[in-house]
Design goal:
The structure is a homodimer.
Chain A (H helix, E strand, L loop, with lengths): L1 E3 L3 E5 L14 E5 L16 E7 L12 E2 L10 E2 L12 E12 L2 E5 L8 E7 L14 H6 L5
Antiparallel strand pairs in A: 2-3, 2-9, 3-8, 4-7, 4-9, 5-6, 7-8
């Protein structure tokens, strides 16, 4: 087992776990008191960051270990939990690439952070173009349909 | 504190933590015995996946909480630990987007997995184009220089 200590918390305008329309929200990550502004130094030189967080409101008893229809929608194929990004997954980790708006001490203001207020943050990494997908990118049609109203 | 249970392990050709030339390696993720092939069902419909793993060989005592020069290279600016992607970070999480080569039962063969043999895997997510960075992407020059020999 691996024990992690959240590095901070999401402060945002959404308080309930809902799937869509995240661009209507504002959010920042507030680092905890172990950290000073130094921990974020230079992050405003990057356009985007990757935020890894914990779906803390997800019910462990509902975690899927096999396959299911994404969002329970039977119009989409039944796929493995590791072939979808929903919250009811082993370890309940979320990961999202957000646009950096500004730094303010130990607060990092972001656009496109799809996590509710109070979400524990486990890591922040700069988005480097060297880590972007390499080679041709494709996905099944249902993935595009699922994301249609997401932002 | 948040306790995670690895979902599987990296089996790969690199056994020592070194920074560069990862494309010379082959690797797969082997899911643990709680999972069957169903957990990966449909993942071969995606060109890429995101793998979240634990830098298990990193020394917790060396975790940086402030700022440092990436890779200790003073030719590059001193930046916060959350403005770089090195292993000596709080929580020791790694996250990499890899190309899917093939599925084989509970084994997922990947290209571009920069994790050594034995690395605990915490999550696998499909790479959806809807989660790609939105808006103009930029990064400081040192980030490009650091990645020059990485793959």
């Amino acid at each position: 087992m691996i024990t992690l200590h959240p590095i901070g918390i999401v402060r945002g305008s959404r308080h309930a776990a809902e799937d869509d329309a995240w661009d209507a929200e504002v959010a920042h990550v507030e680092l905890d008191s172990r950290f000073g502004p130094d921990a974020l130094l230079g992050l405003d030189g990057f356009s985007h960051v990757e935020v890894i967080f914990h779906f803390h409101r997800a019910d462990p008893a509902r975690a899927e270990h096999g396959a299911r229809h994404p969002r329970g929608n039977s119009a989409w194929p039944r796929v493995g939990i590791f072939a979808q990004r929903g919250k009811d997954r082993p370890n309940h980790l979320g990961s999202t690439i957000c646009r950096v708006l500004r730094l303010d001490g130990t607060r990092l203001h972001l656009a496109g952070l799809d996590a509710i207020d109070g979400t524990p943050v486990l890591d922040i990494k700069p988005w480097m173009q060297g880590f972007a997908p390499r080679g041709a990118v494709h996905e099944p049609a249902w993935a595009g349909a699922l994301m249609e109203s997401y932002w």
